[in-house]
Amino acid sequence: MTQVEKDTRAPATAKLSLPTLTTMVVGSMVGAGVFSLPRRFAEETGVAGALIAWAVAGTGMLMLAFVFQTLAVRRPDLDAGVYAYAKAGFGEYLGFFSAFGYWASACVGNVTYWVLIMSTIGAIAPALGDGDTVLAVVLSSVGLWLFFALISRGVKEAAAINRIVTVAKVVPILVFVILALFYLKPAVFADNFAGADYAGSLFDQVRGTMLATVFVFLGVEGASVYSRHAKRREDVGRATVLGFLSVFAVFASVTIVSYGLMPMSEIAHLRQPSMAGVLEHAVGTWGQVFVSVGLIVSVLGAYLAWTLMAAEVLFVAAKDDDMPRFLKRSTPADVPVPALVMTTVLSQIVLVVTLFSDDAFNFALDLTSALTLVPFLLAAAFAVRIGLGGRRGELVVAVLATVYTAFLLYAAGPKYLLVSFIIYAPATALFVKARREQGRRLFSPPELVVLAVSAAGAALGVLALALGWISL
């Protein structure tokens, strides 16, 4: 296993170094999303829009990375950063929602891994379709629970998986970029510059890619989630920034070079993982096989890491009495099994829901991003509050991060916000249970306002689905 997973499951005395934290951030971000980027961008934008989108996303996410760096130094008393910052800044109920939303986003994100694996195998086994058939969901469910058994036991097989994944995540991506540059056709690249007729205005093109960029950058906050394990608190922020800068150029390169190999309208109709289809077009069948094998191995390891991260969020929130007590339990190997069960169950539910989606992969990808935006927005807003009494530079960065995250909520559109409310609102039952266990008042007046807003949003979401105003 990677040092990250070792230390995650080691006794509390084990501490993570800066290189390990940085590796964890990079490993968290380099996952299924990057293999899907060519098609996802080609569905929305041409080269010009892609360049602007990456400039906006890169700047915005860098501001968020700086926010996590600042908060790690200014508030070293707060562990499990994303959730803890929301709680410290805006109270226990919004802190709870932040923890739950971040956890739920990780669970939904894990579903994209299984959809992508089944879609990849579906190229040679048509019964699996695009990862959204009944057989694909059944096989994904088997894999889901096999990994649950693997992680909950802490067996040594996890070590072998992650050693392979360390290489498998990076090599296919770098090979793809190098070969794409070698086979790049300037004329094709020029034709794709303005975008196809279906892409719409430049603003619409940029907005349409925003959730995809959020998805691939998920993990930039990974060092904050494991801050309780860091040797030095300042290493959390450094690892966040170093990890982000390490992968930004790779993500942008995968997208941009693809436009030099195929017309964007053809890329937009490739099956996922589209990176395999693009490379096949350039070098032949071996390119598709190479990327596909690397993807499957990589995604399995990413699933393992993100499952552990999701369980960690619930576990730390329970230790702080913001989740029910049963989520505090862990094995002698420091595996929080009850939190792991909840993580696997929610992923299972979302897997079944993909059967009713028009595009299972993009649905899970966009929902993952939308669920993450609330925790990110609360963390950035907390940094603004701290910045008001500190350095002007920190305040400017925090404001830019907040504006960027608010823009992402706008870019997400009503569909994913309403579906997010449907997921958020029922979670209040866990908050109520935790309060009752402590013999405390269930809600303060401000918390009742938040409850009313979340319940109204969930009710509107259910109504919109029932009446066909939105679809999955």
| Unreliable residue stretches | 1-13, 155-160
Residues in helix, %: over 70%
Task: Report the end-to-end length measured between terminal Cα atoms.
Answer: 36 Å
Query: What is the overall number of helices?
Result: 21
N-to-C series of helices and strands: HHHHHHHHHHHHHHHHHHHHH
Q: Largest sheet, if any?
A: none
- Rg over alpha carbons: 21 Å
Q: Name the overall outline.
A: globular
Q: Can you count the beta strands?
A: 0
How much strand content do the residues show?
A: under 5%
Structural class by sheet pairing and helices: mainly alpha
Overall residue-averaged pLDDT value: 80
Summarize the structure.
The chain has 472 residues and is an all-alpha fold.
Description:
By secondary structure, the chain is mostly helical. It has helices at residues 3-9, 18-29, 32-42, 47-74, 81-90, 92-121, 134-153, 157-168, 171-183, 186-191, 202-217, 222-225, 233-258, 264-267, 274-283, 285-319, 337-353, 360-387, 392-424, 428-437, 445-467. The chain is built from 21 helices and no strands. The relative contact order is 0.19. 75% of the residues lie in helices and 0% in strands.
Properties at a glance:
472 residues; globular; mainly alpha; 0% strand; single chain; disordered N terminus
Secondary structure topology:
Layout lengths: L2 H7 L8 H12 L2 H11 L4 H28 L6 H10 L1 H30 L12 H20 L3 H12 L2 H13 L2 H6 L10 H16 L4 H4 L7 H26 L5 H4 L6 H10 L1 H35 L17 H17 L6 H28 L4 H33 L3 H10 L7 H23 L5
